[in-house]
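Q: Can I see a sequence and its folded structure?
A: Here is a first one.
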Amino acid sequence: MMNKNKGQVLVAFILLLPVLFMFMGLIVDVGYLYIEKRHIDNNVKDVLEFGLTHIEQDTNIIKSKIKKQLDLNIDDIKNLDIKVENQIIEVKLEKSKKSIFSVIFSKFEYKISSDYRGYINEEEIVIRKA
């Protein structure tokens, strides 16, 4: 009598295994994207601080130094916009990042963006999301 029910758990497990792998892949992807986003944001904040400490230099020199530093620390930047006006520096950066799901869905990419503005207020550097 018990032999009829023996394989039910195995069949259910095999049917749910792909769903389990998809959730695990999603968790790894989200964690990886969080780390990548923090890396990009920290680099943008660092170059803003550098630019604000050298704000008395020529605008083009500041822009080129910021761009060079970002290119050294961040791979595959898709879009970079640097504005230096009226003692305010604004950096907008976009990047596409492939995921684990790119193996399954060949055109699937996450877009990561960072948009910060920095200025000096009463001799204190202020950096905020734009």
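Q: Show me another, different protein.
A: A second, unrelated one:
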Amino acid sequence: MSLGERLRQARLEAGLSQRQLCGERITRNMLSQLESGAASPSVATLSYLAARLGKPVGYFLEEEIPSTNQQVMEKARKGSGWEVLEVLKEYAAPDAVFDRERWLLEALACLELAERALKEEKRPLAWSLLEQAASAGAKTPYYTPQLERHRLCLGCRVRPEKAGELTAGLEPPEELLPLARAALEAGEPERCGTLLDAFPQDTPLWHLLRGEAHYALGEYQKAAPHYHRAEEAYPNRVYSRLEVCYREQEDYKMAYQYACRQRK
């Protein structure tokens, strides 16, 4: 039974119409294509539909073909991180039933572990895991653009000097500036700077946040140009910062000018 047929059967068993199952996440036309096999769902879409139907995602990925990897996959689905990678060593490939899900599970586990390694300052390990995630993701259609974006953003944090190269051609995420601001407020100016450098924007808020990240790291000479680009939009915030930046650079004339501007 194909994935589409399983979707349709589960929907009928649940007593739902296509419109009721779609909710607000997908269109009825898209669901029709999925059920007919004319289109394949992303992991996010399949997870959404599975949750509404009360089924595990694996239910829709399995085909009625005998597989020696059944138990391996059941263990891998329940695990996380290194446990998943260890279990998958027992996987016997190729396997027409589970190959697509197997590679997805490896990619997800590597992304999880890479983020953990980054928090522990184990950057070489994090980079190796990100490369493994990319390799695994390339072998399954269930590896989504959203997962690849997440991998690239983690890569920017591991190797900030490669941020421009890694994100070339990608549109900045809508949550970029809120994420950068949150990182700054959490006392992580390096992470804030990495996020901003991955997706440069010539806007006052972008420059303000970039200036604040440099300022928090004591990089006053680098902070000043960004503060100047944000000066008109955020004068009350910027004047005091520029006074400090110029004082730290021993440019007391400019420091005095910005001290005076604060009093006006």
